[in-house]
Amino acid sequence: MIHVTAQQVARSVGRSLCGKTSFPHSYEAFALSTRSSSSVNSSSSGGAGYGNVHHQMLPGDESENLFRHVANPKTISVIGAPMTFGQPFVGTDSSPALLREQGLLKDLSSLGWRVEDLPDLDFNNICSEADASLSLLGGDHSIGIGSLAGILRAKPETGVIWVDAHADLNTPDISESGNMHGMPLGIMMKELVPDRRVIPGLEWMEEGTSPRLRPDSLVYVGLRDIDKAERKCIRELGIKAFTMYDIDHLGIGRVMDLAIDHLLAKDPNRPIHLSYDIDAVDPLHAPATGTAVRGGLTWREAHFVCEHVVKSGALASAEIVELNATLSDGQGASETIELGHQLIAALCGECIF
Ligand SMILES: NC(=[NH2+])NCCC[C@H](N)C(=O)O
C-alpha cells in the first residue's frame, strides 16, 4: 500500500562541482504543506521533566584538527530541509525554524565555526550547494534520499552511519506502510532497487552519474524496530547493524569503535556522513517524533555517538531528522528540540573535555 506518490518523492540530482556538494530536490507536493506554528509551547508538561538544568557549550581541544574533511577555516553550511511528506504527520517541517530560533547558529559560531546559513530548501525549485562541510536540518528521514544522492555524487567513497530506531531499508515493493521516510536506504541500494526509473517520480535518480550506497558502506546504530522484509535484506546484504541489544551488550563505546572501524579500516581517509534520526533516542528524552519506540539511547549515549564520530576526524556531513514539536506537548517538544540542538553542537565538536 503506497500512500506517497511520485510528486512527494525527493528529486535530487546531486552533482560535484569542484569539491562542492549540491542538493537539488523537488518535492512538488511541498507547496501543499501547511506550516505549523514555529514556536514551541513550553508551558505544559511532557517528557521526563528534568526542570532547570545546566548545559555548558565548550569546544574540544582547538589544537587538534578533528575535521580533516572540512575546509580551513572551519566552515559549516547549514541547510534547512523542511520536508514532512515522507510520513503521515505535519510538523517535521517546522524543525529547521525551531532549531534556528533556539540559537543554533550562534552556538555553532561560538564553537569556532564560520557558519554559512543557507536558505531552507524550496521543494519546488531546489538546488543548494554547500561547501566542504554540510549540516542538514530535517525534515523527515525521506530527505536522506536527496542528501545521500548529493553526497555520494560529490564523494562516492563516503561511508554512512545511520543512527535510528528503524532500518529505513524498505522499497515501495516491500514497505508495509508505504511511507517514504522508511525507504531512503532501500532506494539508494542497487541490490534492492536496480533501476529507479520503475518508481514513478524517481526517474531522475538514474540520470547522469548516480552512485549507489554499497551495503558495506553503511553501519546502523540503535536499531530496535525492524520490519520483517528489512531484516531479511540486512541479513542477505550483510549490512553491519548494531542494534540496541548490541549497545546493551557491548556498551556504546565499543559499538561506536566497531562502527567507525568498519567504515575506515580499509581507507582511513574516507569521509563519513552521519544521519541522525532523533527516534534513535529513548522517547523519555525525545518524545516529539512520529515513530517513537521505547528502549532507545540514553541522553549520554545519544551525545557519545556524535562525540565519538567527531573524534575519528572523518566526519564530513550530517543531518538530523524526524523532530516534530507538534507531537508532544510543552516540555516534551522543548526537550526534543533542545536535544537536537545539542546533538548538532556535539557533531560540531562540543564536548565535555
Ligand atoms: N525514519 C523513520 N522514522 N522511519 C520509520 C519507518 C517505520 C517503518 N519501518 C516504515 O517503513 O514505515
Overall radius of gyration: 18 Å
Average pLDDT score? 84
Helix/strand structural class = alpha/beta
Question: How much of the sequence is in beta strands?
Answer: 5-15%
Number of domains: 1
- CATH superfamily, called what? Ureohydrolase domain
Largest sheet strand order: 4-3-6-11-10-7-8-9
Shape estimate: globular
Query: Using DSSP, what is the number of strands?
Result: 11
Top-tier CATH class: Alpha Beta
- The CATH topology annotation reads as Arginase, Chain A
Poorly predicted tracts of residues: 1-39, 41-45
Count up the helices: 9
* Proper CATH architecture: 3-Layer(aba) Sandwich
The molecules bound to the chains, other than polymers, are: arginine
Helix content: 25-40%
